Amino acid sequence: MTETTGKTAHDIAPGGRAPDGSARAGQQADGPAKAGGTRAVGAPDGPAAGGVGLAQDQFLSVVSRDEAAARFRAALRPRPVGTEMVALADSLGRVLAADVAAPVDAPPFDRAVVDGFAVRAADLTGASEAAPVRLRLTGETIACGVSPTRPVATGMAATIATGGPIPRGADAVVMIEWTEPDPIEAGVVRVGRPVLPGQNVSFAGSDIARGEILIRRGSLIGAREIGMLATVGLASVPVVRRPVVAVLSTGDELVAPGEALRPAAVYDANGPMVAAAVAENGCVPLLLGAIPDDAAALRAAIDDAFERADAVILSGGTSKGAGDLTYRLVAGLGEPGIVVHGVALKPGKPLLLAVADGKPVVVLPGFPTSAMFTFHDLVAPVLRLMAGLPERAETTVTATLPARVPSDLGRTEFVMVSLIARGGERLAYPLGKGSGAVTAFGRADGFFSIDALADHALAGATVAVTLLSGSAEAPDLAIVGSHCVGLDAVTGVLADGGWTSRVVPVGSLGGLAALKRGECDLAPIHLIHPETGRYNVNHLDPDMTLIPGWLRRQGIVFRADDGRFAGRDLDQVLALVATVPDLLMVNRNAGSGTRLLMDRLLKGLRPAGYWNQPKSHNAVGAAVAQGRADWGLAIEPVARDNGLGFLAVGPEHYDFAARTADLDRPAMAAFRAALDDPAVAERLAALGFTRANGNGVSG
């Protein structure tokens, strides 16, 4: 399930063959090499049964992104998988499989397009308001759905409604606004304006002619297309059959959402996420759940998926670790087999692309961001072609990088970013959460690439950002700095009021730096001054104002059953960790307010674990709760949620820095009003937070 790098002399060539064309290195452990169409897959009863002690007989053979795409398409030659007839009511969103010719005219008869009188145009030559023409009515009123029975002879007119069929003899319709009843003789109408032949008449076939191609094949059927098809009476239409795509996750560590999370396990996010992405791209997902790393179980699941679906997508099992069995099983599904195993991408290097007897078989990396990025970049375009859809059009915007972004030489790196517009400039903030983060892809506005030959992107560089949603609309408020769960309550109230906000967590010092550069509206901070012990107020520039947020208690967290902390006060605990070498701490990242507080408490000490520097309170709590560390500094809700002991250090101020000149902006006024909203106060109280006064004194 991990992304790996490197290759050896045993790297295989496309199709699961060694570079010299022989069978895969280590093929003996898997049974005989494939001959013709005979399937040869990993044998669970051999020495490597279940993956225990499995020889690493498959190594990544890394190719460029463009070569990977070219190999995959050349082997697959993607095209629609077939056609089917569906009811008109079920055709929304489907792709038309054949040209549709109109079986009837539309309209099917000549009809009036206004309310008035059906007339002979020649009878009204010279008519005017001063000299109106008198016409005798036929005595028939023609409405929609009513077939006329009386012809319009010379000097006559028939009362007609919009949509009514034109009676025999009439060749025009005069609007009712240009007529009036004759004041002397009943059954007579006076017309004060002439008309031309055909005026106010929609003739049969003028909209759609019988035999005309109404909609071309390949068109996506929407509401307008359904309207046209219904107009000519079609109850069913031929559409491209949606490919069935089997989706499996692999790994002993996976637990289905809704089940209890056992130790060292994670919930299967890839399966549901990839299945949803399959549906978004015009296919029918067949979600088959998570399969453990067991050769027999995997072989059965993959064979079942291959028989039932037009394509198979797995996640996990792409790297060269001894526990990864998936690639060996995929290699035996059919010809030509594996065409790519390893792409020079970050994220997504261990991607595996195969074609088996005309079906695509893909093994995505196990990490969520890697899985989703490689799916959308290399797999979704192929699936769309199989579904008869055009490849998705990409929208690209330019943006400026606010900070330097390091990269690995030798791999094209795709960097997920969040976009913020400031002063006519668009900024791209990297979401540096790693390929294992679901939110890196889920919350990104887009991505830009760093060339494989570069080891960084410069601060201030202009980059081309490919949008994931097709829109780069700027939020009303850009909030850059330290994140807190209490902030979600405020942004929620803002959203209820129609205000949009973008939160980019970069730490307190990073937020202040962004505010100084004019890159955001608000910088959430909790920075203690090392000399005065006051929070936040000493860190502001003269042109900034502090908006009071809330107080939250920071404290030393430890496992409740750890007797080494029992009965000790703060000074005693700090003395203890300074003298007991096997008490392992977990720290916080440099630039965070919690790190500044920790350094103030330690007074220059560097206990064991000091350089373990996660970026959130939750990570500190998890490290202690899971026994990877013995103590750390975190806010009280984290201790409560993890069942940890909590030794209070004191309240800290979580406030918001803003430029004074911006305070009167409507969005800023809405933010300050949200801070005082009762719903926010209730949420903060539930978290154990209280509103701050803004003086920075913790008391």
How far the N terminus sits from the C terminus, by CA atoms, comes to 49 Å
- List unreliable stretches of 5+ residues: 1-59
CATH architectural group of the largest domain? 3-Layer(aba) Sandwich
Tell how many strands the DSSP assignment holds: 36
- How much strand content do the residues show? 25-35%
Q: Any idea what the radius of gyration is?
A: 36 Å
Overall shape: it is: extended
Number of helices: 15
Quickly name the level 1 CATH class of the largest domain. Alpha Beta
Secondary structure: helix percent: 10-25%
Described by strand count, sense and barrel closure, the largest sheet is: 6 strands, mixed
Q: What would you call the structural class?
A: alpha+beta
What is the spatial order of strands in the main beta sheet? 7-4-6-5-9-8
In short:
The chain is α+β, with helices and mostly antiparallel strands and 699 residues long. The protein is built from 15 helices and 36 strands.
Write a structural description.
This protein is of the alpha+beta class and 699 residues long. It folds into five domains: 58-79 and 243-386, Molybdenum Cofactor Biosythetic Enzyme, Chain A, CATH 3.40.980.10; 83-106 and 207-240, Molybdopterin biosynthesis moea protein, domain 2, CATH 3.90.105.10; 111-202, Molybdopterin biosynthesis moea protein, domain 3 (Molybdopterin biosynthesis moeA protein, domain 3, Beta Complex), CATH 2.170.190; 396-467, Beta-clip (Beta Barrel), CATH 2.40.340.10; 475-699, D-Maltodextrin-Binding Protein, domain 2, CATH 3.40.190. 22% of the residues lie in helices and 26% in strands. The strands form ten sheets. It has a six-stranded mixed beta sheet with strand order 7-4-6-5-9-8, with no helix packed on it. A hairpin with a 2-residue loop joins strand 20 and strand 21 (359-364). Helix 3 (270-280) packs parallel to helix 6, helix 8 crosses helix 14 (666-675) and helix 8 packs antiparallel against helix 15 (678-687). It is extended, with a radius of gyration of 36 Å. The model is unreliable at 1-59 (pLDDT under 50).
